[in-house]
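Blinded run. Sample ID left blank on purpose so nobody reads anything into the name before looking at the predicted structure. Input follows.
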Amino acid sequence: MGKINYWIDALLQYGMRCGLLPAEEEIYARNLLLDTLGLDSYEASGLKADEEIPELSEILEKLLDFAAEKGLLEHNSVVYRDLFDTRLMNCLTPRPKTVRDTFRALAEEDVRKATDWFYKFSQDTNYIRRDRIARDRRWTYKSEYGEMDITINLSKPEKDPRAIAAALKMKDTAYPACNLCKEAEGYAGRVNYPGRQTHRLIPLTLTGEQWFLQYSPYTYYNEHCIVLSAEHRPMKISRDGLRRLLEFTEKFPHYFLGSNADLPIVGGSILSHDHFQGGRYTFAMEKAETLWSFELPDYPEIKGSFVRWPLTVLRLDGDDPEKMADAAAGILAKWREYSDEELGIYAYTDGTPHNTITPIARRRGKAFELDLVLRNNRTSKESPWGVFHPRAEYHHIKKENIGLIEVMGLAVLPARLKTEFEAVADCLVSGSDPAENDLTRAHGPWIAELREKYEDFSEDTVNALIEEECGRVFVKVLEDAGVFKQNEEGFEGVKRFVEHCRS
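Blinded prediction complete.
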């Protein structure tokens, strides 16, 4: 009993030291923790206010071990432990109004101060799990288009078989309707829905509608935020949506904001809820060079350009966000109806629409910049996953949709690749047959290519080589997703479309 009191005190000290818990609420928070842990008594551990305490991850692990021993967890597995440690952290987390009042007060001074505070707050509450994100494997790849970011995502926990089985037995519920709904704020969670008791939302008004700002719990890049509609409605790229992107950058000029496309295959993983993603990070696409410029007769004050990037990017620059939104909406309308049969681009097949865009807004000083990435989700017998989708030969590394984050130049690769790449390294060094190992079998053709390309593999260099070649594959994947290819035929196709937009 005595030891658990130390870990309770350590968590309270953590909360007070990082500013989550006012000192005058210590007793109240302690009693919440005791109740959560099924305890009805407490003795001070003697932990002093200036004494060094363990990292938050260790504190929570000890409390979770106690909860498991006491039978407070249905199963002692990651899903149930995550639900319970969120309950523990909720005992320290300020209520939504307090968080919003603090954000607004800081924003009145400087909006950067407000986002700096809110991002740190989201980490301090363990809503953003620093310890897991630190385990993500990250590197860069210098391509002909710029320096690409690569990450193997290890921060999102894998569900254990018992949790999966429990989820299948659960009755369907429409509350919250999805992981992005405003109703998630404070929700305790269940085996098929993450605990969100420490989750907080900042209200925003965009084009006269209520939206909310939050951070992604997995933060694939610095200050990775999500801006979501108060209404649960499907994703839709429209003039209003484009204007919202620009308006957000008026309010948060240090952040970019973009949207996934609004069609399957080329859209994101959640198309059921209208939302954007942004943050404080410079992607390779933002730094991509301009190949040539064009003008739009109806918008002489707006500069258009075609960007050297594996996907097809039309960039607009101007000072007036209303005219920028009008010009972009005009290009979108033209693109939705545009076909180029020579290049396999069809706006419709059997009445099904295929053309849309992935838009990204940012500021260049006082000016606005809007990237329109042309997308097409047509499938065929030869390409059932998508004509403008990663080819099957690359599926061993990247089979998933190319969404907003990948479009900008950051590959978010599945966790399985960590162990598979380790096995690939062993296979290359030892010279073994990849078909003999379940972890390398799918990578067999790639391993054969590497053996033809390189003469020797050593334990000191093989991992860097795999990272380099993985980056090369990612660029090929992005090129596959480009509707107009980076060659003379593709360039001529882009020029035809731009001329169509000018007419």
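Unblinding after everyone has recorded impressions. Residues 157-217+220-388+484-502 form one domain.
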